[in-house]
Amino acid sequence: MPATQAFRRTLAVIAALPLLTLAACGYGSEAKDDDTAKVAAGAKKIDGLDSVKIGYFGNLTHATALVGNQKGFFQKELGATKASYATFNAGPSEIEALNSGSIDIGWIGPSPAINGFTKSGGKSLKIIGGSASGGVKLVVNPKKIKSLKDVEGKRIATPQLGNTQDVAFLNWAAEQGWKVDAQSGKGDVTVVRTDNKITPDAYKSGSVDGAWVPEPTASKLVAEGGKVLLDESSLWPDKKFVITNIIVRQAFLKEHPKAVEAVLKASVETNKWINANPDEAKAAANKQLESDSGKALPADVLDPAWKSIRFTDDPLASTLHTEADHAVKAGLLEKPDLNGIYDLTLLNKVLKAEGASAVGDAGLGS
Question: Residue 230, Cβ neighbours under 10 Å: how many?
Fold first, then answer.
């Protein structure tokens, strides 16, 4: 099938399944508004704004947003401009919310960021910062799969056709010399596109033999008796690859740069606090998860999941470019024009003020 036709079919599937997870994220409630932020007495509004609307997933790979919300970092930097929050389950729904103005800034994975940028002809969004790296694993049934070569012939779940983990697994399978039809998932390995919410049940029932999934789904499978066969970070230089970015609506960036800078400053401060206080940060993220979804993660899931994620301000731009190339090789994406997808000007301004090194855009900046 020609790449153009495959790409169109992929977009059709994405449009038809808006509540499934696209990209790096999988858990969370759909567009749940959280209007509980407290404004400090005597604080002033930024850019005359009543609020800045921030979107994220109820997922540990979005812990910068979870902790920033829970500990009040965003509200502190925004002053009397209220930090308002909405949580999402799926990349397409968050991109739709960004495009409609329902949110201004969002935490999101690389695939929906790429799709949102390219489908709009480069006019909808900019990636303005990084947030997290890692947190993706191949977890298998150890009774059926004892080594990497045993994956051949088995049924492996990924979150959704064309999402970041789906592309990563297809690329890895191709590197093993296995042939898989990207659209149907059929071949030397069978790829079963399964919502992260139900993947643990699919694993328990035996309908899949393993899964290439983000946290906390991976640790949920381990808690059910699964074994980590491969950590995706081992496949990347320096064991780093982008799992979560920060995006902004281009019009909002143009009209309210001070507000965007305030959110980025809060993000940098949050990551700094997370890395300095990992146990407290883990507890804060879990508390926010409970607030957003009504259910906290148990320790046997939370602890190992947290250890596999690295929080960073660097968007790791070169790895996003590589992930896009993998999607093209799989026949799921036409070669995208990513020029201009990044605008790291405000982030580097914040980092400079913090005495930190600037981060790069891999030649894909404004």
Answer: 18
8 A C-beta contact, residue 126 and residue 344: no
Closest CA to 116 of 241, 26, 250: 250
In the 3-class helix/strand/coil scheme, how is 73-85 assigned residue by residue? HHHHHHCCCEEEE
Give φ, ψ of 185 to 5 degrees. Answer: 80, 5
- Find how far residue 27's CA is from the centre of its chain: 10
Q: Which residues contact 348 (CB under 8 A, 6 or more apart)?
A: 358, 359
Per-residue pLDDT of the chain (366 residues; tens, 9 = 90+): 444 444 334 433 333 333 333 333 333 344 444 444 566 667 789 989 999 999 999 889 999 999 999 999 999 999 999 999 999 987 888 999 999 999 999 999 998 899 899 999 999 999 999 999 999 999 999 999 999 999 999 999 999 888 889 999 999 999 999 999 999 999 999 999 999 889 999 999 999 999 999 999 999 999 999 999 999 999 999 999 999 999 999 999 999 999 999 999 999 999 999 999 999 999 999 999 999 989 999 999 999 999 999 999 999 999 999 999 999 999 888 899 999 999 999 999 999 999 999 999 999 997
DSSP 189: S
Give the CA angle between residues 188, 229, 274 to the nearest 5°.
130
Cβ pair 273, 311 in contact under 8 A: no
The rounded Cα 9 to chain-centroid distance in angstroms is 23
Q: Give pTM, 2 decimals.
A: 0.85
Q: State the Cα–Cα distance between residues 334 and 289, nearest whole angstrom.
A: 36
Distance CA 67, CA 85 (A): 12
Residue 128 CA to residue 347 CA, distance in Å, equals 7
Distance CA 282, CA 127 (A): 25
- On whether the CB atoms of residues 164 and 290 are closer than 8 A, the answer is no
- Strand, helix or coil at 119? helix
